[in-house]
Amino acid sequence: MTEDSDLEVDDLWQAIEACYDAGWTDGLPVVPPTERLVDDMLAGGVWGGDEVLLREPARGLAVSARKAAANAVMAGCLPEYFSVAGAALAAMGAPEFELHAVAASTGGAAILIAVNGPIRDEIGIHYKENLFGPGFRANATIGRTVRLVLRNCLAAIPGKLDKSTQGWAGKYAMCFGEDEATSPWEPYHVSLGYSPSASTVTVMAAESGHNVLNHASPDPEGLLDTFADTMSAFGSLSSGRSLVVFAPEHARKIGAAGWSRGQVQEYLFAHATRSYAEVKRGGKVEGAGNVAGFHPTQWMETDPVVQPGDEDIPIPRGTCPGDIALMVGGGDAGGHSSFFPTWSRDRSVPLITQEIFTP
Question: What's the mean per-residue pLDDT of the chain?
């Protein structure tokens, strides 16, 4: 999408088809971005049209607020959603997020967007039943805006820049709110030092979520052991970060036992492990690099041959308890929570949180 990509059409359906012909869609119909609609969308944010929201330094690309607004229109956003979508794009531009690698890798990461603070209720971001699924305009269209920006402004087109081996449905849209009132702890953004009155967006380069089912465990240890087992499965074990979104039923059990956020993080980090020997025998150590011996963030690239003492070396998910982010969300009933690993091998990229400002 360029600054001179104007189209002249006679009717709405022709305009939608023209957007398909221009390659501006994610496969679903988009709202044609007329000048009036784009101006209205811009007015919902705090940025001038030429202000850069996102820079992608690997290829020297930039996304202006006007381009972002055009994609927000196409995604179906209301103007009041634009401050959230724009903040998410700004967070993705943090150098440590390594957006080019995230968008181009075979790993197939989706940009997961979690929203905290008063803006959740102000604009209707959903955080109850089916919070990762369809049915909620703010969630769907904010997440879709990010995907359309990646496609239309950064050329993350499947088979070209986007080399995802399989991808997953979260790449259409992945946005939800934290259920702060149900959480046994302070909201996620408050745990990072933000005021409870602030609103924030957190972005994560996420692999597909893993359902964690446990209806029976009455105590935190038994319940968290189920999470630890899921987090240490060979299929996604790495030294990268994690996001655990506890369903309210699970959160209430942990809260009733008086466990703090830090205790839960420490327990999961201590138990979401496999031995160095196990990961070698399981084919997780590739021997592709030149790192000699065990390394806490590059163990996948070390010698794949089991050595004496390897049985006693734990390989945890992440490198410290703080690598495990905890949130709460979902329906009030049901022992189904979710674990999201970060994309790719080794350390991967951090979660980035950005404050949301409104006009």
Answer: 94
